[in-house]
Write a structure and sequence with these properties.
This is F-box/LRR-repeat protein. With about 350 residues, this protein is of the alpha/beta class. It is built from eight helices and 15 strands. The protein folds into three domains: about 60 residues, no CATH class; about 110 residues, no CATH class; about 140 residues, no CATH class. The protein has an eleven-stranded mixed sheet, covered by helices on one side.
Length: about 350
């Protein structure tokens, strides 16, 4: 860490000395207040301050939030090597206290030469991490550690890992995971026939961005608590049908990013929403057909003569609204149905 400070500019070192002098005046405060103060700084600045006195070093060793952002790391000689050493040094000197947030922001990968080490991820899991964010490349492998899927403390998981094959073991123990975000991952053929996330009992929000699902004919998701599902610009999504068994769904966002298409093209099998055991399909592409199908979908799902939904929206490539409801009674159509917990349906195409 001293070498990192020595490699920085004189103005940066002057700023560092100013921080440390100010920190010395605060070192008599109670431990929990010192921890809160240090947590407000970036991880690198907190490390600098920790060299100011023994009490700050002790505070550094039990810091609950660790965010390693390569883009914010000092521009020193051999930056990637220094960054890796800094993360190694941090996890090696941390005490046995819990880590609530552990983030590795190693992107964009076009210029970041550092890679995510398994030891760093294992450290976070051993320290009962609640929020785990991995952005970059994983060193020497294309698979995740199985231990991630048995981290009972995990509440939020974000994976944005290039060239990573997203698969999981037969046994999954993520009883507290509420939010899952996936980017740039490959979903392999071996899990294409599985009902995804049925073993994630607490999952409330799930999003996929730029994930390759080319091996999937049908993407089937079952989750009793899922309230928001986002699927955006995933290779293979135009030929993949979606089946959602999600009775608590409140918002569904589908974004197709295909410059060859000017309107939304729904696959032949369409989207299947499963609510209380009833299936309905939405399977047409033109704006008029989509509007009619949404109405038909709600009729078949709920079969009542009124609607008490919040709102729904279908938006095409130029941003024009095809049809929109704003709550209360709908006068354009009769016998539309009641949406129940379904408050938002947003379908976009940026073709």
């Amino acid at each position: 860490m001293v070498q990192i400070i020595e490699g920085e500019s004189s103005s940066s070192n002057r700023h560092c000395r100013t921080i440390i002098r100010g920190a010395d005046r605060l070192s008599t405060l109670p431990q929990h207040i010192l921890t809160e103060i240090l947590s407000r700084l970036s991880t690198v600045e907190a490390a600098r301050v920790s060299f100011g006195s023994r009490i700050w070093m002790t505070t550094w060793h039990l810091l609950p939030n660790l965010v390693f952002d390569y883009s914010q790391f000092p521009n020193v000689v051999n930056k990637a090597h220094s960054f890796v050493r800094f993360v190694d040094w941090t996890v090696a000197h941390h005490d046995e206290s819990d880590v609530k947030i552990f983030e590795l922001q190693l992107g964009p990968t076009t210029y970041c030469e550092a890679s995510i080490k398994y030891q760093w991820v294992e450290f976070a899991i051993r320290h009962n991490v609640q929020k785990l964010v991995l952005h970059g490349r994983v060193c020497g492998t294309q698979n995740l550690a199985n231990s991630i899927f048995s981290c009972r403390s995990l509440v939020k998981l974000e994976l944005s890992v290039n060239e990573l094959v997203f698969s999981w073991p037969e046994t999954i123990q993520l009883p507290n995971l509420k939010k899952l975000k996936l980017k740039f991952l490959l979903l392999p053929q071996m899990i294409s026939n599985q009902d995804l996330f049925s073993n994630f009992p607490a999952l409330e929000k799930f999003s996929m961005f730029f994930c390759n699902i080319a091996f999937f004919d049908v993407l089937s998701i079952s989750s009793s608590r899922l309230t928001k599902f986002t699927m955006s610009a995933c290779p293979g999504m135009e030929s993949c049908s979606i089946r959602l068994q999600t009775p608590s769904l409140a918002k569904f966002i589908y974004t197709s990013w295909d410059p060859r298409e000017s309107v939304l093209q729904v696959p032949p099998c369409g989207f299947s929403l499963v609510v209380d055991g009833d299936d309905s399909c939405m399977c047409r592409g033109s704006p008029d057909e989509l509007s009619r199908t949404v109405v038909k979908l709600t009729r078949e799902l709920f079969g009542t003569s009124y609607i008490t939904k919040g709102r729904w929206l279908i938006q095409m490539s130029q941003g024009g609204v095809v049809n929109r409801g704003s709550g209360g009674y709908v006068t354009d159509y009769d016998s539309v149905g009641d949406f129940g917990d379904l408050n938002d349906v947003t379908i976009k195409n940026f073709g």
